[in-house]
Each structure stands twice: as structure tokens, then as C-alpha cells.
């Protein structure tokens, strides 16, 4: 069983994906980490966000099993990830890796922006997780403050809107709900309620 969870930044898709993976005993891949790893490496090495060949080289050299989420969750890395994610060569370089993960024996849960549309269009279960930009900004703000980052609620909301705009309008695999995905709007739901709703969706699809 392949479960594809897509949605915008800070929509709670990671929480849902992790819970479903645990529930069904499936491996889970947070595909945002791949783009974040490329974005962070580009920042560290001073590679321009429009240098397709150099970014694709970084992407091709990634070791999925060695991704450390901690430094990848910092605010500036999210922005860098969204910049490199708009580069077609980067997406191509990360595609095989994600497809191999999705099609392993027994199934997998993947979360990202284009899992149901591009990476695993054959997935039995597709969930498109959404919430208002304000609700998502509030969650991301709390997360960043807990990490010790000094950010204002307004700057987080601005960043979320900018990323939504870039992720939805790019030419290569833009963020969009697959025709056969079920939408889960969790603006007014807590994590446990969101997961319960996701489990109902899986049950209705399998
Ligand atoms: O989900 P997360 O916020 O960690 O993703 C960081 C960035 O990576 C997103 O803003 C998006 O531009 C990009 N991304 C993508 N396709 C995916 C996952 C993430 O373009 N499947």
C-alpha cells in the first residue's frame, strides 16, 4: 500500500504521515527533507539558486538514509528548499530516489507536494492536507520559537504565503491536489483529530 500525503508548508502533513506509517508499520519518507538538504548545502557552499547543474549534482549525491532532520528544519533552510525545488534538474535528480522508496515491498508513506501527482500517481490512498495560511503560520511560529529562533508571527505568515505562491506557481510539479485525492482541512482540528480523520480516509480507500 502506497499512501501519498501532500499539502502546503506547515499543514500538518508530516504529523499525519508519521502517525499513519506507525499505525500500518510502513516506512515513511518526508520528501521535504530532500529539498531542504539540497537547499542547505547550496547555502553552505554558496551555490546560486538558479545554477541547475550544480544543484542537481548536490541532489544526486544525497544519501537518504543519512538525512539529519534537525539542522534542516531551520527557517532559512525552508526558504532555500523552496527555491531549489523550483529547478527542474533538481526535481529530476530526486525523482528516482523517491520512486524507489515508494515502490519498495510492502508499501510506504511519503509526504510532500507532488507525491500523488508525480512521484506515485498509482498510490491507493492520496490525502491533500490543508489549513488556512494563518493557522499554518501560527503552528510554524510556535515550532520555530520552541527551537529558539527569533521570529515574529507576521514574518512567519509572510514566509508561508511566499512559499505557497512559489510552490503553487512553479512550472515543474507545482503543488496541486491530485484529482483522486481526498482533502483534509485541519484548520480547526488538533493533531489527534487530524490523524483520526486520515485513518478514516485510508479505511474508505482500502
Ligand atoms: O515540506 P517542507 O516544508 O519541508 O518542504 C520544503 C520545500 O521543499 C517546500 O516549500 C517545497 O518547495 C519543496 N518540496 C517540493 N516537493 C516535495 C516536497 C517538498 O517541492 N515533494
From TrEMBL:
Q: Where in the cell is it found?
A: Cytoplasm
Q: What is its main location?
A: cytoplasm
Q: Which organism is it from?
A: Ancylobacter pratisalsi
Q: Keyword rRNA-binding: yes or no? A: no
One GO cellular component term of this record is: cytoplasm
Q: What GO MF terms are annotated?
A: ATP binding; dCMP kinase activity
Q: Which domain of life is it from?
A: Bacteria
Give me the residues that bind ATP, please: 7-15
Leader sequence range is none
Q: Which reaction does it catalyse?
A: dCMP + ATP = dCDP + ADP; CMP + ATP = CDP + ADP
Listed GO biological process terms: pyrimidine nucleotide metabolic process
Similarity remark: Belongs to the cytidylate kinase family. Type 1 subfamily.
Which CDD domains does UniProt cross-reference here? CMPK
Give the E.C. number(s). Answer: 2.7.4.25
Task: Kindly provide the name given to this protein in its UniProt entry.
Answer: Cytidylate kinase
Its ancestry begins with: Bacteria, Pseudomonadati, Pseudomonadota, Alphaproteobacteria, Hyphomicrobiales
Instruction: Please verify whether the record's keywords include Hydrolase.
Output: no
Amino acid at each position: 500500500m502506497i499512501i501519498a500525503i501532500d499539502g502546503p508548508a506547515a499543514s500538518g502533513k508530516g504529523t499525519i504521515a508519521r502517525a499513519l506509517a506507525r499505525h500500518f508499520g510502513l516506512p515513511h519518507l518526508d520528501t521535504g527533507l530532500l529539498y531542504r538538504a539540497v537547499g542547505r548545502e547550496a547555502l553552505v557552499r554558496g551555490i546560486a539558486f538558479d545554477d541547475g547543474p550544480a544543484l542537481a549534482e548536490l541532489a544526486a549525491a544525497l544519501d537518504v538514509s543519512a538525512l539529519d532532520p534537525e539542522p534542516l528544519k531551520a527557517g532559512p533552510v525552508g526558504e532555500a528548499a523552496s527555491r531549489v525545488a523550483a529547478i527542474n534538474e533538481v526535481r529530476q535528480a530526486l525523482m528516482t530516489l523517491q520512486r524507489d522508496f515508494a515502490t519498495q515491498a510492502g508499501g510506504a508513506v511519503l509526504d510532500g507536494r507532488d507525491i500523488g501527482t508525480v512521484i506515485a500517481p498509482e498510490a491507493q490512498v492520496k490525502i491533500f492536507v490543508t489549513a488556512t495560511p494563518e493557522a499554518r503560520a501560527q503552528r510554524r511560529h510556535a515550532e520555530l520559537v520552541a527551537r529558539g529562533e527569533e521570529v515574529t508571527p507576521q514574518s512567519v505568515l509572510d514566509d508561508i504565503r511566499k512559499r505557497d505562491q512559489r510552490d503553487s506557481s512553479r512550472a515543474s510539479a507545482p503543488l496541486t491536489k491530485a484529482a483522486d485525492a481526498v482533502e483534509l482541512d485541519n484548520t480547526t482540528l488538533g493533531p489527534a483529530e487530524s490523524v483520526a480523520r486520515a485513518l478514516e480516509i485510508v479505511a474508505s480507500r482500502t
